[in-house]
Write a structure and sequence with these properties.
The complex is a heterodimer of chains A (307) and B (314). With 307 residues, chain A is α/β, with parallel strands linked by helices. Helices cover 48% and strands 13% of the residues of chain A. In chain A, the strands form two sheets. Chain A has a six-stranded mixed β-sheet, with helices on both faces. Chain A is globular and about 60 Å long. Chain A starts with 13 loop residues before the first helix and ends in a 6-residue tail after the last helix. In chain B, the strands form two sheets. Chain B has a six-stranded mixed β-sheet, with helices on both faces. Chain B has a three-stranded mixed β-sheet with strand order 5-7-8. The N and C termini of chain B lie far apart (40 Å). Chain B is globular, with a radius of gyration of 19 Å. Classes of the chains: A alpha/beta (307), B alpha/beta (314). At the A-B interface, helix 2, helix 4, helix 12 and helix 13 of A face helix 2, helix 4, helix 12 and helix 13 of B.
Chain lengths: 307, 314
């Protein structure tokens, strides 16, 4: 098929809608306490998610939102970290394969739907009518960072680090820009987005990005306490409160930024790299994932960012 | 406690899908011309839609959005009209108190409302932000949810017999979820008149107040709509997609997004209104006399008013 006619992956791009086996999410509901837990479960890949995995995550979020026994949703990662973001394996596929025609703008726009549209992951979490808690340890990168930003509460262990590697490849991404402006202010957000530098848990706490830092051994317990505190409240109080937050966020401009952000991020996919710049796509195509990450590390190794 | 039937949630969706005997929408794509047609097909009920039908409309719209051959989506109704809105029997049943039962709480109500109608996954915003160009081809009643669907479309073409209103204005008053959008279309003065009186507009009046783009004789409606769709489909597909994305941003910046969220809350709040003696209460009357009885009672109440003076006499 001509790449220009390649449809959005929601419907028929197999690679994009393919679900993981076993599933990406472990999902449990503690009916008695009113708490649903969604665990990212691809520890061998540092919980990096494919687009299919992100769709699964959206579906689980909606399932918990619509479950009358659930008041609080906890997101966490199995293994060494929360999540390292999106699986780089599909990025070459997403940006087109050598020799094919340049991808059309409408295809670029539609393929971002499962992440950035109103039905996508980011807005499903941000505007979820149940309380959401991100329980973060290790890497909180990429879409995982964006998801944690969208949660009501973030509790992190001391070893957690926060950023989006995409800042290094395509620059500041719009979808969580305004949320970060609201949480840690314009200056710190711009610093993170323009440098691509990861913030430590303590820095993130100081900047107001997260709610609490605890020792790793206490993380489960602290999240539990927070979830129970919220779940003690009446069902209507939680849901009506969250609906009111949605109104406030939209009046503050978040909704408009989400709509514009979908378009802006589509535009960013047209980025052109100059000679001597780090080109993720080329590097992935030539050297594979491990090689590309190594090249990125080498590229940035002598900058003062590395500490 | 009596188990109240839920109208949202995974189990409900699966159960409804299994129960559904025939689809609500007819769906056809003219690949050559780049036009998809979604036809509401419950003519025996004047295309009144129950909750799963709205979800089906959204799913069909997704299908058209993600079909690379489609540039323009046309919505239309089979039988006598475009659509008479939500099936009122469902509204009455949903709110009816069973002996020993308790009314649904506000939390359950807003989860349902946002899921099926006015939230980010509901039909209302799906139309406002649809990445493909949308046209409503309207004849006869264009009421309720169908009025909201049609007025959210990019282009509205109506036959001379078309009438426009939301019966909800007569039961619960002005509804907020697409208030800003409608204000941008028809202006505040006209919208307030529509919302506070509940009076239906005929096609001519709708054209005058810029609610719709064009009026055509009934026997020319299909043709006129096809002409408009074909003209649009001559444009480059990327230009339409980028244009629609820009319109989405413009609408959101104009306040449509914020009012959608605030309006959903406002709508659920309207569920809690108390009707005073002598005022019409759709749910209570429907519970006592059935839907037909309730609609008759409602008609009686407005019989001397200007409401009755539109061509449909409704």
């Amino acid at each position: 098929m001509n790449s220009d006619e390649r449809p959005s992956y929601i419907v028929s791009d197999e690679k994009f809608s393919q679900r993981s086996d076993p599933p990406y999410c472990l999902y449990e509901v503690d009916k008695k306490r009113g708490i649903a837990t969604i665990t990212f479960n691809k520890p061998h890949k540092l919980n990096a998610a494919t687009p299919g995995d992100l769709q699964e995550l959206t579906e689980k979020t909606i399932e918990a939102e619509e479950d009358s026994d659930v008041k609080v949703i906890v997101y966490k990662g199995a293994g060494p970290c929360f999540t390292s973001g999106v699986d780089l394996e599909w990025i070459t596929h997403a940006f087109g394969v050598k020799g094919e025609r340049r991808l059309s703008q409408r295809y670029r726009y539609l393929r971002l739907q499962p992440i950035l549209s109103r039905q996508g992951l980011h807005q499903s979490v941000l505007y979820c009518l149940k309380a959401t808690i991100a329980q973060v340890h290790g890497y909180c990168y990429g879409t995982g960072f964006s998801l944690a930003t969208a949660c009501d509460i973030v509790i992190a262990s001391e070893d957690a680090t926060f950023t989006n590697p995409a800042f290094k490849y395509i620059g500041a991404t719009p979808e969580d820009m305004v949320l970060l402006f609201l949480t840690m202010g314009v200056k710190k957000t711009k610093e993170m987005m323009l440098t691509g530098q990861a913030f430590s848990a303590q820095d993130a706490l100081n900047y107001g990005l997260i709610n609490k830092v605890v020792p790793k051994t206490k993380l489960d317990e602290e999240v539990n306490i927070m979830a129970e505190k919220i779940a003690r409240h009446p069902f209507d109080a939680v849901v009506m409160g969250k609906a009111n937050f949605e109104v406030a966020l939209d009046i503050a401009g978040v909704g408009a930024c989400e709509v514009a952000g979908h378009a802006q991020e589509t535009w960013q996919s047209n980025i052109q790299y100059q000679p001597g710049e780090f080109n993720l796509i080329k590097s992935l195509a030539n050297k594979g994932i491990k090689g590309a990450i190594q090249e990125r590390e080498d590229f940035f190794s002598d900058t003062p960012l590395k500490r | 406690m009596t188990e109240r039937k839920k109208t949202y949630g995974k189990e409900w969706r699966e159960e409804t899908k299994a129960k559904k005997q025939q689809p609500y929408c007819l769906y056809e794509v003219d690949k050559e011309k780049g036009i998809a047609r979604i036809t509401f097909n419950k003519p025996e009920k004047l295309n009144a839609a129950v909750n799963p039908d709205w979800i089906e409309i959204v799913e069909r719209t997704y299908e058209a959005v993600n079909d690379p051959a489609v540039k323009v989506i046309i919505y239309k109704g089979a039988g006598r009209c475009f659509g008479s809105g939500a099936d009122a029997t469902e509204i009455i049943a949903g709110d009816t108190l069973k002996p020993g039962g308790r009314p649904r709480g506000q939390g359950e109500r807003i989860i349902e409302l946002r899921r099926n109608f006015y939230g980010r996954r509901g039909f209302n915003q799906e139309i406002h932000y649809c990445p493909k160009v949308t046209i409503a081809q309207i004849h006869g009643y264009c009421y309720g949810g169908h009025f909201q669907m049609a007025s959210g479309c990019d282009i509205l073409i109506a036959s001379e017999d078309a009438t426009f209103t939301h019966p909800g204005y007569r039961y619960i008053g002005p509804m907020g979820e697409d208030m800003v959008h409608l204000m941008l279309r028809v202006g505040t003065a006209k919208l307030k008149e529509m919302m506070f009186t509940g009076r239906a507009l005929d096609a001519e009046e709708a054209l005058q107040c810029k609610l719709i783009n064009k009026v055509a004789p009934l026997d020319k409606l299909e043709e006129e709509t096809a002409k408009m769709a074909e003209l649009i489909a001559l444009q480059a597909a990327d230009s339409l997609a980028i244009g629609k994305a820009n319109f989405g941003t413009a609408l959101a910046l104009a306040g449509v997004q914020a009012m959608s969220s605030a309006g959903a809350v406002g709508h659920v709040w309207q569920h809690m209104m108390r009707s005073e003696p002598g005022e019409f209460n759709l749910v209570r009357t429907g519970r006592e006399r059935g839907l037909k009885g309730a609609l008759q009672a409602n008609k009686e109440r407005w019989k001397d008013s200007s409401l009755m003076k539109n061509p449909q006499g409704n």
